[in-house]
Amino acid sequence: MRTIRLGMIGGGPGAFIGGVHRMAAALDGQMQLVCGAFAGSPERSQEMGAALRLDPQRVYDNYEQMLQAEAALSEDQRMDVVAIVTPNKTHYAMASAALHAGFHVICDKPATFTLDEAVALRSQVAESDRIFALTHNYTGYPMVKEARHLVRSGALGRIRKLVVEYPQGWLAEALEDSGVKQAGWRTDPSQAGISCCMGDIGSHAENLAEYITGLKIEALCADLHTFVQGRPLDDDGNVLLRLSGGARGILYASQVSVGEENGLRIRVYGETGGLEWVQLDPNTLIRHHIGQPSQTLRAGANHAYLSTPALHHLRLPAGHPEGFIEAFANIYRNVARVIQARLEKRSPDPLDLDFPSIEDGVRGMAFIDCVVRSSQDDQHKWTPFHVP
Amino acid sequence: MRTIRLGMIGGGPGAFIGGVHRMAAALDGQMQLVCGAFAGSPERSQEMGAALRLDPQRVYDNYEQMLQAEAALSEDQRMDVVAIVTPNKTHYAMASAALHAGFHVICDKPATFTLDEAVALRSQVAESDRIFALTHNYTGYPMVKEARHLVRSGALGRIRKLVVEYPQGWLAEALEDSGVKQAGWRTDPSQAGISCCMGDIGSHAENLAEYITGLKIEALCADLHTFVQGRPLDDDGNVLLRLSGGARGILYASQVSVGEENGLRIRVYGETGGLEWVQLDPNTLIRHHIGQPSQTLRAGANHAYLSTPALHHLRLPAGHPEGFIEAFANIYRNVARVIQARLEKRSPDPLDLDFPSIEDGVRGMAFIDCVVRSSQDDQHKWTPFHVP
Amino acid sequence: MRTIRLGMIGGGPGAFIGGVHRMAAALDGQMQLVCGAFAGSPERSQEMGAALRLDPQRVYDNYEQMLQAEAALSEDQRMDVVAIVTPNKTHYAMASAALHAGFHVICDKPATFTLDEAVALRSQVAESDRIFALTHNYTGYPMVKEARHLVRSGALGRIRKLVVEYPQGWLAEALEDSGVKQAGWRTDPSQAGISCCMGDIGSHAENLAEYITGLKIEALCADLHTFVQGRPLDDDGNVLLRLSGGARGILYASQVSVGEENGLRIRVYGETGGLEWVQLDPNTLIRHHIGQPSQTLRAGANHAYLSTPALHHLRLPAGHPEGFIEAFANIYRNVARVIQARLEKRSPDPLDLDFPSIEDGVRGMAFIDCVVRSSQDDQHKWTPFHVP
Amino acid sequence: MRTIRLGMIGGGPGAFIGGVHRMAAALDGQMQLVCGAFAGSPERSQEMGAALRLDPQRVYDNYEQMLQAEAALSEDQRMDVVAIVTPNKTHYAMASAALHAGFHVICDKPATFTLDEAVALRSQVAESDRIFALTHNYTGYPMVKEARHLVRSGALGRIRKLVVEYPQGWLAEALEDSGVKQAGWRTDPSQAGISCCMGDIGSHAENLAEYITGLKIEALCADLHTFVQGRPLDDDGNVLLRLSGGARGILYASQVSVGEENGLRIRVYGETGGLEWVQLDPNTLIRHHIGQPSQTLRAGANHAYLSTPALHHLRLPAGHPEGFIEAFANIYRNVARVIQARLEKRSPDPLDLDFPSIEDGVRGMAFIDCVVRSSQDDQHKWTPFHVP
Fold first, then answer.
1. CATH tag, A4-138+330-356
2. Averaged pLDDT score across all residues of chain C
């Protein structure tokens, strides 16, 4: 058993999500960052590499150089997997090149810049025999796994309704005009794509809802809006859902809800039960059953009442809060273990295969595409949700 | 100053809301129940009257008899105001007759069975010079008054978005088939009208949202549904809102959300602030302001930081929970005080005029009418919300 | 069946608890306030009587006059029961005279000014065959009844530990110097007795703990303190408890805990389970069982999982918050029903006998006496808790 | 700048806290585990080393061997700092030897087995010029830093009262009889010392209270108890505190409170303000100010209203929960940075010096000693708290 070697594209000085990926990779000691092309300029890339204590020889000017150089290294040296943590615009080319060069890929969401790119990437993943993991990190929380398990095991009966929401408030002002990097690219169509709010966080809500319930959106009716003057993309959106099996739903996301931080929350109701999970209190899952007191299920590696999937993704006994990084790290840990199994030429533990894939990426891009089209159409109520 | 005399139509054995009205009327000692026509049969009406310790002579067989007999009593005897607490079907005829007979009216919501009736009733109220109060009781909570005050005083800036929800779970099963009276009439079109869920609780959500924000719904897009087989009316509904001033919103109501009790909740976001109020924790109001820690405003007659409207509707110092009945009683108390002012031929305290009126009733009926039409129309996305 | 007639001693202009008693008596329509001696001066007593719409002939100058005059009225006129809502100093003489004059008594807590008085009053109650109810109102909450039921039914196993706390913050400043009436008498030894904080609210905590658990305090170790300079009585106190059956506990009360409102809260732990109840969220009871998810029991007349005692004291279905007044009114309603049963010469419903008695009053006075003695003794660790 | 090299004593298969230390060390990429003596047997130590992907040559049979071998390595190879994560019994000898061999030390709490050892270790640390950090990890939470800052900046006025509690439920049954390793050594006097509950978690409560308030315990009155039959050490304890500046307090800890997970919670009240922090919701700090609504301060690297110490210890923007490991990692990160500064021969950032030291260790041992003595003394109420 050896440490899995990680390279990174993006995540230079001032970035947010790059640091998260690095902490997630480091947490469990199964991966080690060995190289990177961190920024647009070689100087800033080296600056980052130095801060990360990397060998300067393995800090590259750009991703093409990195892929080429790493591929040329001996097998006991070169990186195994590359993390892509750049703005959406660039994901496709990078992922495609990485797969082509024979590397596994962990890519930040959304998968690509356009739906067409996502579909093309799916083919390339299929042909490549490489692992492609998408960091829809919220499904990495153990109590989300528990929720999925409960729905699948029939604890709620046939699902009737879901409400999934993702309010934030940080873009209530035009931070993009104040030079805040995170705000800048997200509100810029040339970097983010056709949607800001729905692309950035609405797609997390969609992914979470489908992951937990196993239902598929069949049609939707969206009302996106831009509240901050001059912003070219949506910063708020409300969506009615019709799902497989006759379920109905509401999905909404907002970046202008002053006072909200990162309020991803889902409620699911079936014929005999219900459940609620809130990202800000991620170690708690509320479970309802008709005619009985509600139960509060709590994360805890010592809680024998939890399901195998939940326990598999827990590190600590009850009462020791695991948070955002730990959930994120569950994706990295699972990917590392699956790569490890390949290195050892054995089948991976099926529980380790539980991480978002390019299929989630295609669905996410199709969702963004569909809500934007629906919102632009003030005539037709329902826009069918087709996933290519 | 004398006690205001109350009569009641409906609220016989087994009813729920009649008892609430009686407790609300009694709480502050300003009204006294003196007569009633409580049930469909004279025997059950007398049975109820006896339980309420009324003079059997003033327990009537039906409302027509009551109105006639009470009108014939001397001024120092006869009832001042009549509470109508029957199923929706009957409200209009009763309210109309009561006004005609010269009595003030307190009517349970929704105001009438049809929108046309509500419009007609509005004219009759206008012509009558009688008070007509509608028990949209949730606006009676002091912290709802505080929320309205904050919005009106500009504390949130221009309003951008609201989310109002009202999930319940009690009709997740077909209780109407088990002889539960409350379920029976609400799911019966001949008694409840064109909607169950939206008529019963969706209209509360609409009223609360417009009361707090002062915004008016301009168009909506609704998706109502019936989940329990064989039920002829909706038991769940999701609605997108477009409101005056460019605000957007979501309103949803459900009676099949297993585990939810009476989860009326509203969140409002403006350019600089936000607020959240939850009926299950009614003495708390969360206030957000951009860039600052959120504040928890708490009900309490001793809290000098609260606004005059909130303080006017509080009875107890902080930490002594006031609940559903107290909020309901705020309508009764205000009506009693306004009647008192009339008896004393003086202007009422403007703060006492803060109770729902027939105008709220017309809006509520127009809302029910609009969501049902919108839901039935799978072609047009937006249905304009016109209030006659 | 007739309305039970209530008289009141105290509760004049500016008082707090008198108004609570009146609302509690009125809520269920079983009692009617018919007379009172509301204040120290005849003028202010009449002023209050007029505000309450009483017959001026039955508004008295003082309690002696009231008892004499009411006793002289015919049986179908005179009051049945008198509520004593004055400062502690006066309770004994008033209660004693009322019993002597043949009236039932509802007395605010603590029962008397001194322990000796409480013991003497107990004898008089026993000899009188009159009802004496003490308004330790917090035990009137339905979920407190549920908690008691759970403990009694063995759901927690043998009790090991309890933590009961009652923090308030309103006396963090010397409000008694600003003319606040509530603060004035409570901090004045000549009116309140030997303790402020422990007498006013610590005794509620003691009563709640013993009511729920059925355990008896056997010894205690107290540390009372006065934080506000110049105040002659305690405004904060911490107590270690040793209880029957080997249980241990903590009880604390404070009036200087800035930001706390009326934070009565109890946690009880047994060998196999635990529970938690918080007065600020009184309709919720958390139940723990070893190895299982915690349950959230909720007040609701429609919740079949609740016990008979809890359901007996509920008025509304789940999700319609019942608050402080409703809990207080449960004492009044039970007393009214027991008096009604006497009038009808039948045995009362045993569930109606569930209200605090003079025995609770004696225990409460013994508790106050014991904590004050313990606190003054810096030598001996444990002070035995003897109830005369 | 190079990676700081970490060795570990203890933390073999089945241990809990060793894994936490490793994740904490890895999270920020500033330390790397390079060697270890993980278990009592060489085989199990190697087994752990292999799982951790360590060079087998640097997996040692015991700590003496490790210290000797590492000291003999060249400066660019040998470990910088050793983490001691064994049961209490062994801490002193290991820490002493590590310091003597010239290594920095990170030691799990409590510092030692006896108070005398802690005092002796303090001298050795002072003489050694090495860093000694104690993992009282709860003070690593950013919102605890914020709480401390608020108190120090006078936001609460002079402190009057504190309540600190630490209930757990996991030892409500005799897990030590079922072979649970964690339960076994903690309840064994030959490994844990004179106290189980107070030593294991009560000392965390003491440390947290003194850290936040800056007050010192001056005397205490303790009542420890063992509820589970046959257990030789306390599993529950209640303590009254008298603190410097005239403050009073309550501290309690329990391992038999069924349903409680790891409920460390502190409330502090001063003349003008208060605050509350709860470990299970660690990213929230409630702040009270007299006469104003309470504020909810939230962790978030983007929250400009937070203090410098809080921001210094945050990794993520608001709404991305940081948990137990992140708080733990703040100790490791600070130690790494201080070692880095030494390597670079510059003064450390004063903010990095904020980690628990041997002085905290001595105070903690003195606390355990004092509560045990107090509890055994049923005669004297107050036991002075002297720190040697």
1. 3.40.50.720
2. 97
Distance from CA of B120 to the nearest CA of A (A): 33
For B258, which of A223, A257, A273 is closest by C-beta distance? Answer: A273
Contacts of D297 in chain B (CB under 8 A): 293
Residue of A nearest to C299 (CA): A293
Q: At what angle do helices C142-152 and C203-213 cross, to 10 degrees?
A: 50
- CB count within 10 Å of CB C99 equals 22
CATH 3.30.360.10 fits domain B139-317+364-376: yes
Q: Which of the residues A325, A326, A333, A339 would you substitute to probe the D interface, choosing the one with the greatest number of D C-beta atoms within 10 Å?
A: A325
- What is the average pLDDT value for chain D, to the nearest integer? 97
DSSP state of A11: -
Does D56 contact B at CB distance below 8 Å?
Answer: no
Please tell me the distance in Å from B175's CA to the nearest CA on chain A: 13
Q: How far does A2 lie from chain B, in Å, by closest CA?
A: 46
Question: Beta strands D217-225 and D236-243: pairing type?
Answer: antiparallel
Reported ipTM:
0.96
Q: What percent of chain D has pLDDT over 70?
A: 100
Q: pLDDT-based confidence at A181, cuts 50/70/90?
A: confident
- Whether D189 shows a pLDDT value over 80: the answer reads yes
Cis preceding-peptide flag for C356 (omega within 30 of 0): no
Yes or no: is domain A141-317+364-376 CATH 3.30.360.10?
yes
Q: What pLDDT digit, counting tens, does each position of C113-158 carry?
A: 999 999 999 999 999 999 999 999 999 999 999 999 999 999 999 9
Whether pLDDT at D1 is above 80: no
Name the amino acid, one letter, at C380: H
Identify the helix (H) or strand (E) that includes residue D36.
Answer: strand D31-37
Give the global pTM.
0.97
Query: In residues, how long is chain A?
Result: 388
Residue D123, pLDDT > 90, answer yes
Topology (CATH) of C141-315+364-376:
Dihydrodipicolinate Reductase; domain 2 (3.30.360)
A contacts of C304 (beta carbons < 8 Å): 291
- Interface size, chain C vs chain D, as Cβ–Cβ contacts under 8 Å: 136
Continuous segment of H or E residues that includes residue B165: strand B159-167
Tell which CATH architecture fits domain B4-138+330-357.
Answer: 3-Layer(aba) Sandwich (3.40)
B258–A172 C-beta distance less than 8 A: no
Task: Give how far C198 is from chain A: nearest CA, Å.
Answer: 34
How many degrees, rounded to 5, is the angle at CA D308 between CA D307 and CA D310? 70
Would you say C251 and C264 are in contact if contact means Cβ atoms under 8 Å apart? no
CATH class of D139-311+364-376: alpha beta
Query: What is the separation of C-alpha C210 from the centre of its chain, rounded to a whole number of angstroms?
Result: 13
**Alpha helices for chain B (secondary structure H):** 17-27, 42-51, 63-72, 91-100, 115-128, 142-152, 181-186, 189-192, 197, 203-213, 308-312, 324-343, 358-376
Give the residue from B115, B140, B198, B118 showing the smallest Cα distance to B164. B198
Q: Reduced to 3 states, what is the DSSP secondary structure of residue A7?
A: strand
